[in-house]
Structure formats: structure tokens, C-alpha cells
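Dear support,

I submitted the protein below through the web form. The confirmation email said the job was done, but the results page showed an empty box. After a refresh the structure appeared. I'm attaching both so you can tell me whether what I see now is the final result or a partial one.
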Amino acid sequence: MRIFYLDSIRDPGNLGTILRIADWFGLDFVILSPDCVDVYNHKVLQASMGSAMRIRKAELDIAGLLAIGDAKIFVCDAGGKNINDIMAPAEGIIVLGNESLGVSDEIMHRVKDVFAIPGDRSLGAESLNVASAAAIVAAWWVK
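What the results page shows now:
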């Protein structure tokens, strides 16, 4: 299975867009941490363009995520290995973090691997929008 775990996604537009991306690329599931914005928030529903009703989703806290025994948990974070240099996992859980704080330390210290989307920070951008990152990661994952 291919699953996104969303760690503290607070912006309704980002959450709705990520649900739409997961639907478009055929991911199996989206798991939300309890402190994500409400999936039924009207802005989430609007941004998802109906995908919020189609994609399988659930809520699970970090302890529950980490308790999943043999699951392969990966993190997308700017400090990881370049995704262009590694093979996408056949299945697992990819964690996408909060818009300003990234992935929580509790998850970062317990994951199998961390990978990054390469960019040129010398041009001034400090990070990539989480929904944009989700689209790039999903396309890489299912190719």
C-alpha cells in the first residue's frame, strides 16, 4: 500500500489539495494526525474538488503511527537524500510535515529513511509548499 501520513497540516487549502493529489495518483490511503485541519472544513472540501469524499482516510496519532510494526515509514524533508538518486519504495508510508515546522522530531527519529526534493535555495526560496511537495512525491512514487 502507498499511504501519505500528514503531520499537523493546518492550512485547509493544502489539505484539500493533498487529498486531490492522492486521489489523482491513486494512493491507497491518507492518514491525518489529530492536529490537522478538519477534513470536512468547507475550504478543505472546496480545494479537494470531491476527492475528500473518494480517498480513503483516517486519523491516527503519532504513537499509533509509530506502533505500526513492520511498516516502512519514510519522511520527505529538505535535509534528506535527493529523490532523483534513490529508488522510490514499492510501498510504505510517506510522512509530509507541517507547513512551517516540518515533520515532528518524534517521527524524524524513528523513520527508515529521509528523502528530499532537490531545489536551488540560492535563489531565495526557503522551502517548498507542502501540497506542491506532495504532488512531486506522489508522481515519483507511482512512476
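Response: this is the final, complete result; the empty box was a page-load delay. The first helix runs from residue 12 to 25.
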